Amino acid sequence: MASSELLQTLTNGLRTGQIIPYLGAGTLNGVVETTTGEAIPADSDSLILAMNDGKPMAPRLMYEFPRAAMNLENKKGRKFIERFLTTQYGERQWSQSSFHQWLATMELPYIVDINRDTQLQNAYQGRAHTLIVGISRIAGTDYRFRIFQSDGNEYSEIDQASVDTQLPVLFKPMGTPVPDPCYIASDADYVDYITELMGGFAIPGFLKEYRQGKQYLFAGIRMQRDTERMVLSDMIYNAGEPAGWVLMPEPNDKERRFCDKKNLVIVEADFSDLMAEAQALSA
Question: Which Pfam family, giving just one, matches this sequence (predicted)?
Fold first, then answer.
């Protein structure tokens, strides 16, 4: 269990903007459909099962969602994957995540969210912000992102030159159904996206400057999936010392080795512990 002092230090780093939150599937634990009580499909296994009518796929496909999505894309087409994700995250009604709501109250300058849901965007409703969405396999552009500016109610697409750098930034590299459904999901998506991420074309220039020397706090993410680790490695390029902290109860040896290689400090606590400590301090 992490000490109160460390959790306080991390919270203070978030508030100053020195530490950037990086949200994974685990931060959606506890979010359920408001009518049925069904848990939101967020992690790799639950997404695969939801995409395949509740039935497991072959073991080699169950290894990772992008692999399973590629298999079904080949059989049913890319539109099938897009419709599935839009139905899950754009049409079903989900309960609010207290963690996302708490992050929103902190008025942080920059958040990375690798989930495809709209919890974070909903938490910022009524507040002007910039939304960056990852794209892949799209011709006619040198970049692998789209930029939208919200006035608090509606999004308008803008170019890099028009970004108001004073507004908070929500970066959704794997996509979102709002305002225009767009996702990184299958192996082919990730190959294209990661290639351009490594080449510097998947992150806007102003964020490349902003992130230099910053550190990261990983919440709700395990360090075992290959594609997530590759995206992470490029997202934290030019990070500070250490590159960040990983809230992870009971890490395994593989995760420890990866974090050590990437200069990430494992904190054996959950994101809920961080929120509880911060709320206790402000009470």
Answer: SIR2_2
**What is the number of structural domains in the chain?**
1
What is the C-alpha to C-alpha distance for residues 158 and 153, in angstroms, rounded to an integer?
16
Report how far residue 225's alpha carbon sits from residue 213's, in angstroms, rounded to the nearest whole number.
26
End-to-end CA distance of the chain: 22
Mind listing the pLDDT tens digit for each residue in 162-219?
A: 999 999 999 999 999 999 999 999 999 999 999 999 999 999 999 999 999 999 999 9
Closest to 115 measured CA to CA, from 226, 28, 13, 236: 28
Cα distance between residue 193 and residue 174, in whole Å = 9
* Helices within the chain (DSSP H only): 4-16, 44-51, 59-62, 65-76, 78-86, 98-105, 119-123, 187-199, 205-210, 226-235, 253-261, 271-282
Domain assignment present for residue 249? The answer is yes
Whether the pTM exceeds 0.85: the reply is: yes
Segments forming the whole domain that contains residue 167: 4-36+94-282
Largest CA distance in the chain: 54
Tell whether 50 is covered by a domain.
no
Q: In which order are the strands placed within the sheet that holds 145-150?
A: 155-158, 145-150, 129-134, 169-172, 110-113, 19-23, 215-219, 244-247, 264-267
In a domain, 58, yes or no: no
118 with 177: CB under 8 angstroms? yes
Does 23 map to a domain? yes
| Bridge partner residues of 266 (DSSP) | 246
